[in-house]
Structures are given as structure tokens and as C-alpha cells.
């Protein structure tokens, strides 16, 4: 099958910027071949990010939601233009996971999910068709709509001795377990969400860069015990969460239950919380090895705490061909590619849906939609070849 050049774009729960990656993908027998072409991150304008963060915790009317949806869409359009450059000036499709602003979880079930970033702005800016709103179909089918990484992880790690855990540490941390009776995937708890919040409270910074604050502090066992008492950690999968739970109110209640905590000690304790909850999940899953990606790997203090607590060896995803910083953007590109070829982008064993589903809604580009014929079988593995000569685009150009 001829290749398809896809741009994957998203902004994670840390809301620190927009990740974009370009990739060539094609079906080859029982495999998807994915060749990364380049990736980058574009920071949100400071004022837009502040309004986004306020929308999570304060009343937000229809007018502000409209403005945010538009301005995020325009920011994603700028990122897509950059993605076209990464793709050598040509692409077939843009896949956008948008910006999650609310994930409605009630009694352990997801009732709805909201991602902003109007795809029409991307289509208008690039002339390319855009696949967006990727989570809600799985939610409508009874699933959690997250984490969607299970599809990529199950293909990518299909030939690894299992069970093996694929970990991603973004604002929320999630894991996929591959190589057991069936894939399992769920959100383990906070990744960087509480760390970023605490860094803002302590120093006014967006994040604890390089874990510098945490490195100066010591773990407070009393605070850690209060934080670990959160029921989410004990719920069976499938399960998902977000800043609706792991946000300012959660941290304020925990701090109110213990004597005053110094800033560095707070960061050290929250770093230990992220490491402990991820490691506990891996221990419960009896995995033999683990591969980690996401923004959290840039924090050496967090990575050291995770290695210390993990019951098994830990590798960076780069060692298996997927850049740790762009894995989620490449996942988004893969999800777009699967829908484009009539293939499901979910695993019901991972999300809890009633069955696999094609994901997303397509916005046409500069011309009519011309989808390829649906693939006749689902792929079983993901292959990431060594860099080769550039593969020409086959359909849409920009």
C-alpha cells in the first residue's frame, strides 16, 4: 500500500504547549510501518494558557468557551503549518486530539469529554482534511475515551517479551500493559499535573524545571500518606481521570490535613507520589519490563524516583524507535491514519467500550474528501524503519 503522510497534533493536560509530529505511514501485510519525519512543540501564548487554566477551575460561560475554542483552533492551525514544513511541504491528513478542558467522570464511568480547538481553522490554514474529536466516539460506546495509547502500544510492543508496560507521563500518567491475556490501559494518576500546580504556588513558575525544587526538599511521609489515600488508585481498570480530580482543590485538601509544608518538601513529596503510583500499578500488573515516554522524562528527579521504585527495568521509548517527547503526537497521527483507512482506533479491553470503533469526525480541506479503500484486515504490529530516502506524498498536497 502507498504511504500516507499524516500530521499529529495535540496539547496535553499540562497545557504547556502544542505538540506536532509528522510521519509517513503505510500498511504492509500485518504491520503498520511508521516513519517519523520530525516533531516540535509550540508554546501557548501566555494569556491564552492562563485563561485555559482558569476555565478548569472557575465558572466559564458560553462566550469564553467560544473564544477558547476559536483561539485554540487558530493556535493549532499555526502548529499544523509548522507540521507541513516538518513533512517536507506535503501532507495528506491532519489528526488533532485538541485540548481537553473537561473529562466528566462520575461513579467510575465517563459521561462525556470535551476537547477544544475548532478543526476548521486547521483545514483553512493548510488546505488539508482534518480528523478531530477523537475521544467522544469511544465514550458514546461506553468507554473512557482514554487512554487512547493502547492501540499504538499494543502494536509497537507486540514482539516484546511480556507482560511489558508502556508508560506515559504527561499531566496525567497512564500505562498500557501488553503481552498478557489482553491489553490493559488506564490512567494511574497524576503525572506532572500536581507538580506544575505546586511549582506555580511555590515559585510562580510553570513547572519544576529539571526537578530543581524537588531536589532541594525531602519527602513528607505524612503528606504522602494523605495523597495516597485517594480512591482512584484503588479502583479497578478501565479508569481515567484528569485535572478535574487532580487539581488545586485536591492539593489544598491534602495540605490542610497535615502541618505546614515547605515548598521544596511539597515538590519532593509530589514527585514521590507520581513515582509511587506508577510503580504500584506496574507491580500490580506483574510486568517484566517498562518503557517510558512523555514530558515527565525531562525531569531527572522524577525519573530517578521512578527507577528507584520500579520493580522492573525501565527504558526510554527512544530506545525502541519512538521519541519520548513526541510519542503522543505520533499516536495521534496513527489514529488519524487508522480512521483514514477504515480501521478502528480503540481497543475495548483497554477503554471499556462495547466494541472497537472508528474515531473522530472529518473536516474537508480545500477539496472534496477522497478516502482510500478501507483496509481488509487490522494490523498486528508496528514497525519503525531506520531513516531512508523521503517517500513522496500520494494524495493531498499543501
Automatic annotation (TrEMBL):
Region of interest called Disordered, as start-end residue ranges on this chain: 374-398
Family affiliation: Belongs to the anhydro-N-acetylmuramic acid kinase family.
Cited Gene3D superfamilies: 3.30.420.40
Lineage of origin: Bacteria, Bacillati, Actinomycetota, Actinomycetes, Pseudonocardiales
GO-annotated molecular function: kinase activity
Protein name listed in UniProt: Anhydro-N-acetylmuramic acid kinase
Known EC number: 2.7.1.170
Assigned keywords, A-Z: ATP-binding, Carbohydrate metabolism, Kinase, Nucleotide-binding, Transferase
Catalytic activity, as annotated: 1,6-anhydro-N-acetyl-beta-muramate + ATP + H2O = N-acetyl-D-muramate 6-phosphate + ADP + H(+)
A Pfam family per the record: AnmK
Residue positions binding ATP: 12-19
Aminoacyl-tRNA synthetase recorded as keyword: no
Alphabetized InterPro entries for the sequence: Anhydro_N_Ac-Mur_kinase, ATPase_NBD
Domain of life: Bacteria
Pathway given in the UniProt record: Amino-sugar metabolism; 1,6-anhydro-N-acetylmuramate degradation; Cell wall biogenesis; peptidoglycan recycling
Enzyme class: transferase
Role description: Catalyzes the specific phosphorylation of 1,6-anhydro-N-acetylmuramic acid (anhMurNAc) with the simultaneous cleavage of the 1,6-anhydro ring, generating MurNAc-6-P. Is required for the utilization of anhMurNAc either imported from the medium or derived from its own cell wall murein, and thus plays a role in cell wall recycling.
Amino acid at each position: 500500500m502507498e504511504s500516507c503522510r499524516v500530521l499529529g497534533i495535540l496539547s496535553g493536560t499540562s497545557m504547556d504547549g502544542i505538540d506536532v509530529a509528522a510521519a509517513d505511514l503505510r500498511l504492509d501485510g500485518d504491520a503498520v510501518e511508521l516513519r517519523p519525519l520530525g516533531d516540535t512543540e509550540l508554546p501557548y501564548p501566555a494569556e491564552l494558557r492562563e485563561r485555559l487554566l482558569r476555565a478548569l477551575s472557575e465558572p466559564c460561560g458560553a462566550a469564553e468557551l467560544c473564544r477558547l475554542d476559536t483561539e485554540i483552533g487558530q493556535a493549532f492551525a499555526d502548529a499544523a503549518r509548522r507540521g507541513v514544513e516538518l513533512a517536507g511541504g506535503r501532507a495528506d491528513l491532519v489528526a488533532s486530539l485538541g485540548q481537553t478542558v473537561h473529562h466528566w467522570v462520575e461513579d467510575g464511568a465517563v459521561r462525556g469529554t470535551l476537547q477544544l480547538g475548532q478543526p476548521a481553522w486547521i483545514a483553512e490554514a493548510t488546505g488539508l482534511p482534518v480528523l478531530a474529536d477523537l475521544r467522544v466516539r469511544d465514550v458514546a460506546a461506553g468507554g473512557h475515551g482514554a487512554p487512547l495509547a493502547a492501540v499504538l502500544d499494543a502494536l509497537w510492543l507486540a514482539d516484546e517479551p511480556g507482560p511489558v508496560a508502556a508508560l506515559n507521563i504527561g499531566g496525567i500518567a497512564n500505562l498500557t500493559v501488553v503481552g498478557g491475556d489482553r491489553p490493559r490501559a488506564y490512567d494511574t494518576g497524576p503525572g506532572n499535573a500536581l507538580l506544575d500546580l505546586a511549582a506555580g504556588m511555590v515559585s510562580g513558575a510553570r513547572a519544576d524545571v529539571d526537578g530543581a525544587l524537588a531536589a532541594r526538599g525531602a519527602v513528607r511521609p505524612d503528606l504522602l500518606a494523605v495523597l495516597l489515600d485517594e480512591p482512584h488508585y484503588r479502583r479497578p481498570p478501565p479508569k481515567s481521570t484528569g485535572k478535574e480530580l487532580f487539581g488545586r482543590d485536591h492539593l489544598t485538601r491534602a495540605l490542610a490535613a497535615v502541618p505546614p509544608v515547605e515548598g521544596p518538601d511539597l515538590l519532593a513529596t509530589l514527585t514521590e507520589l507520581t513515582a509511587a503510583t506508577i510503580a504500584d500499578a506496574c507491580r500490580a500488573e506483574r510486568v517484566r519490563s517498562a518503557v517510558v515516554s512523555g514530558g515527565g522524562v525531562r525531569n531527572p528527579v522524577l525519573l530517578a524516583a521512578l527507577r528507584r521504585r520500579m520493580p522492573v527495568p525501565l527504558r526510554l521509548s527512544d530506545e525502541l524507535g519512538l521519541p519520548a517527547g513526541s510519542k503522543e503526537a505520533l499516536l495521534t497521527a496513527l489514529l488519524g491514519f487508522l480512521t483514514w483507512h477504515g480501521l478502528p482506533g480503540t481497543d475495548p479491553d483497554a477503554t471499556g467500550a462495547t466494541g472497537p470503533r472508528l474515531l473522530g469526525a472529518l473536516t474537508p480541506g480545500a477539496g472534496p474528501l477522497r478516502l482510500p479503500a478501507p483496509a481488509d484486515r487490522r494490523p498486528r504490529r508496528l514497525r519503525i524503519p531506520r531513516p531512508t530516502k523521503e517517500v513522496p506524498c500520494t494524495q493531498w498536497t499543501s
